């Protein structure tokens, strides 16, 4: 198909598609004349993925690029491809000024990982995020949430069990990689949206006007 | 305290603090001379919150501004303040080109909300996110995940139950608002980090090198 049809079928404007081509997010089409290219179904599919990562998962273009590189690197073992994606989507900067508070949170995370029996690298980006988030919650006087880490971890394991069942239904490494990457990133968007709805419902019941269908 | 001490105690560089002041994220200090201001503990606390929202929750500055406005609007009922925050952190653009697929997903979400008995507005931003995410997953051939919405919703309700217990331990509306806002946003960061760790562990066991402590 030509770029106009690619745009029509994906709902993405032509200038945006050209931007993704320039940035290397979308692989080039096959040139049929010096200034015309032909695109395939795989381009449409990739375009949908790019849109989902930018618009729904709200990833910056630079992170989308890293995710797609991890996605495409067939020569890397699957476990490492997944690791690349994790690093691209996880904030892992130290943001806490207080080293002592960070040390306390780090010990708490270490113990949690041990209790859960999680096989994770001690320098996994999500470890840093977890330590910093616990420290921030505590610095902001919200200790109560950080007292329930095990209950949170247990609920989270239910997600990964569901996802494991979905992923292992695929046979090819490429299908598995695709499913893991999409499931990881869009799964987070899905969980966050469900959580906001459950919260809104609770807030409406406890704090809202008498009838929740008002307004 | 002076701005230098505020910077030292928060770990935030002075130019960044001045940027937050200019953007109206941080309220001005009390002027003690034409070009010197005094800051209080509440400034330090607000600065920590801003950093957590930007660095950990990865919110853009514009969204942080809306969140803080919701946070500060004591004159609005609590339920509406929470709604403001939800809108600020939820992507709710339609990104799907396919109206038919969107209609199917919308019906699925409507039925889910009914089954869960959630009291939510039909135009809640998270409803749009959910519909678009389900449509995107399906368009990308990842139907298996969207087949487990109820299991996801059930796990998510465990989070909100935990958070409800934390929130209702406060007496003052302002404390409740603060706890809800921080818990909503940083709670999501916490859940996302835990989920990545659980995933990494699963990936290491199933796909990684013989010993997960390698590398």
UniProtKB/TrEMBL annotation, chains A, B:
Classification via InterPro entries: DNA-bd_dom_put_sf, MerR-type_HTH_dom, MerR_fam
PROSITE patterns: HTH_MERR_2 (PS50937)
Pfam families to which the protein is assigned, alphabetical: MerR_1 (PF13411)
Residue span(s) of domain HTH merR-type: 1-70
One Gene Ontology MF term: DNA binding
UniProt entry keywords in alphabetical sequence: DNA-binding
Protein's UniProt name: DNA-binding transcriptional MerR regulator
Organism: Micromonospora parathelypteridis
């Amino acid at each position: 198909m030509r770029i106009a049809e690619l745009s029509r079928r994906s709902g993405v404007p032509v200038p945006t598609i050209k931007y993704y081509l320039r940035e290397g997010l979308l692989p080039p089409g096959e040139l049929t004349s010096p200034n015309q290219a032909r695109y395939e179904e795989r381009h449409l599919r990739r375009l949908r993925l790019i849109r989902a990562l930018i618009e729904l998962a709200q990833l910056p273009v630079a992170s989308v690029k890293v995710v797609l590189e991890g996605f495409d690197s067939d020569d890397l073992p699957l476990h490492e491809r997944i690791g690349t994606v994790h690093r691209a989507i996880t904030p892992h900067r130290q943001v806490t000024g207080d080293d002592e508070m960070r040390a306390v949170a780090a010990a708490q995370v270490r113990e949690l990982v041990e209790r859960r029996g999680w096989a994770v690298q001690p320098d996994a980006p999500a470890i840093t995020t977890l330590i910093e988030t616990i420290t921030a919650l505590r610095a902001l006087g919200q200790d109560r949430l950080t007292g329930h880490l095990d209950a949170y971890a247990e609920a989270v394991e239910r997600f990964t069990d569901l996802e494991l069942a979905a992923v292992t239904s695929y046979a090819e490494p490429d299908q598995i990689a695709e499913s893991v990457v999409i499931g990881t990133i869009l799964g987070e968007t899905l969980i966050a949206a469900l959580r906001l709805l459950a919260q809104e419902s609770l807030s409406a019941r406890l704090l809202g006007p008498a009838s929740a269908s008002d307004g």
